[in-house]
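Please fill in the sequence for the structure shown.

STRUCTURE ENCODING:
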């Protein structure tokens, strides 16, 4: 795990809350955000490692960017990548994406802005748990006009699995003394990996059908709450213990 900051800037003081809500990005807050993310991963591998690698044939949904890069390199014939080189690839990909990310306001999933506004009004602690690298994730939120809703995030370069990322986010919220007791903590995502990550950390899981995984398949993984999109998710479901 790489020790990198959760935050792009210093965080202000906050009152304690009994509600923590963590969001995935792709398929949950945004959908069909364009090819730029995949393209910068491919270009970063070429610029840093001199290897022509592609995301073609890799089931990237639900994966962390680091795992995607490892798969790309192995698929291109690179058996092992030195940690320093992988960090350089990640750094290059993020720099490229920050420059190229388009306006994403039309890519926001239905109901996301309204739900985020309601959570803010209720004083909830709201963060990101995403397979995106940190600068890529924050850039997406900025270009979608959603950045101000998120207090912190856990990102791909900080762990090897989504469950570990969810655990890091929970630990950080507690370390910052943002949470009161009793507490209701929820992870919202569009992939079975999000459901499993929530379960591994004792979080309530909300699965939304705005990604590539059909609702029927998500239901097989028994999320605590299953909705077609965020418009169907009521605030009470996130703030009530039962």
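FILLED IN BY: designer on duty
SEQUENCE:
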């Amino acid at each position: 795990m790489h020790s990198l900051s959760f935050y792009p800037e210093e965080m202000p003081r906050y009152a304690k809350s009994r509600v923590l809500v963590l969001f995935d990005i792709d398929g949950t807050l945004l959908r069909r955000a364009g090819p730029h993310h995949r393209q910068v991963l491919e270009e970063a591998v070429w610029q840093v490692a001199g290897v022509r690698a592609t995301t073609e044939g890799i089931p990237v949904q639900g994966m962390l960017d680091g795992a995607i890069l490892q798969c790309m390199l192995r698929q291109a014939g690179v058996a092992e990548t030195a940690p320093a080189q992988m960090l350089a690839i990640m750094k290059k990909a993020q720099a490229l994406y920050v420059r190229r990310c388009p306006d994403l306001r039309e890519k926001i999933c239905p109901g996301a802005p309204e739900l985020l506004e309601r959570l803010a009004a209720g004083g909830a602690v709201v963060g990101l748990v995403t397979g995106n690298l940190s600068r890529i994730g924050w850039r997406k939120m900025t270009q979608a006009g959603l950045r101000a809703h998120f207090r912190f995030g856990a990102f791909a370069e900080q762990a090897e699995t989504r469950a570990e990322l969810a655990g890091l986010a929970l630990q950080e919220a507690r370390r910052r003394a943002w949470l009161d007791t009793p507490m209701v903590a929820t992870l919202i995502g569009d992939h079975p990996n999000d459901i499993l990550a929530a379960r591994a950390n004792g979080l309530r899981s909300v699965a939304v059908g705005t990604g590539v995984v059909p609702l029927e398949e998500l239901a097989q993984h028994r999320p605590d709450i299953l909705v077609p999109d965020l418009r169907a998710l009521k605030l009470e479901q996130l703030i009530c213990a039962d």
